[in-house]
Amino acid sequence: MTPTNQGSIRLFRLAGIELYLHWSWFLVAYYGIQMRAGRYPSIMWSALEYLALFGIVLLHEFGHSLACRQVGGRADRIVLWPLGGVAYVDPPQRPGAILWSIAAGPLVNVVLAPTFFLLVLWMDASGLAEQASNLFRLLRTIVAINVGLLVFNLLPIYPLDGGQILRSLLWFVLGRAWSLISATVIGLIGVVGLFVLALWERSVWLGILAAFILLNCWNGLRHAVHLVRVSRLPRHAAFACPVCRTAPPAGAIWTCGHCRNPFDMFEHRAVCPQCGVAYPAIPCPDCGTAHPFAAWTPLSPSWANPPDRSSSLPSPHPPSSSAAAGNRPYGL
Ligand SMILES: [Zn+2]
Ligand SMILES: [Zn+2]
Ligand SMILES: [Zn+2]
After folding, report:
1. Ligand (nearest to CA of 261)
2. What would the pLDDT profile of 192-245 be if each residue is shown by its tens digit?
3. Ligand in nearest proximity to the CA of 60
4. Region for 210 from its dihedrals, namely left if φ exceeds 0, alpha if ψ lies in -120 to 50, beta otherwise
5. What is the mean pLDDT of the segment spanning 81-100?
6. CA 182–ligand 2 middle distance (angstroms)
7. Under a CB-based contact definition with an 8 Å cutoff, are residues 274 and 261 in contact?
8. How far is the CA of 260 from the centre of ligand 2 (A)?
9. CA-CA distances (angstroms) from residue 227 to 112, 188, 205, 224?
10. Less CB within 10 Å around the terminal CB: N or C of the chain?
11. What span, in angstroms and rounded, lies between the C-alpha atoms of 150 and 161?
């Protein structure tokens, strides 16, 4: 549902973040530039306008990524595609850290819009607007793009930035699982509004965007239901996560990356009971960090030394710390 670096061209690496461009971007860029053809006397300016749009999107995604890094999260990849940009960020599972990682994206547009607006005013006042009318038009459009992206991204429709900001604010009051349920339900209502708008405007583009948001919002809701289920499980009182100090849930909530068998990591000492794959680290369902079995402060000494047959094996894909929570792509 979101672009990955498969089928993408690696453009460059900046501040530890790899930038990729999905192949489909070129296809849509061709139409995007043609659509703008009437606005300028030369196609070069139309192309510049289209590139400016993605330049702004890129800065927005860098805002998410750098803020995520700042709060101790992982952010190493941005993929640009026709629907915009996706920053692969994995902030620590705390409402404040998530709030800052999300808010930093729109804040980039909050800074860019008045900056370019001042430039437009200055060109107008100095008479440059008439001498360089194409540049003037481009800069005016850049202001409009920033305002448009800001308004759209701040719609409270999960997983748009506005929906995720709403979710992290609700987290302070409702907790992790119920804040996500509330935000995704509000998001599903909002997405109906987007579909109606797409029909009203007869916009295929908005329809595609709404479908993409709907799929991600639905996945968010499914993940939230899973979180509620996990929060109701009894806990392995003999263990605690070295980071968040929470005792892990007792239940088959981790899924083996090899055989897809759900099992309880702590009951089986990080070894899948079905296929025998041993896992070098167990992801914490509460904070998302992963730690070797022995690091989960065992209270009973007999648990302290798990068999070490794990180093070259793949890591698990536990449902509780998977896409919807941690490595969620942000932004459009
Ligand atoms: Zn297995
Ligand atoms: Zn934890
Ligand atoms: Zn964003």
Report:
1. 1
2. 999 999 999 998 888 998 998 999 999 999 989 988 888 889 999 889 998 888
3. 3
4. alpha
5. 88
6. 23
7. yes
8. 23
9. 37, 18, 33, 5
10. N
11. 9
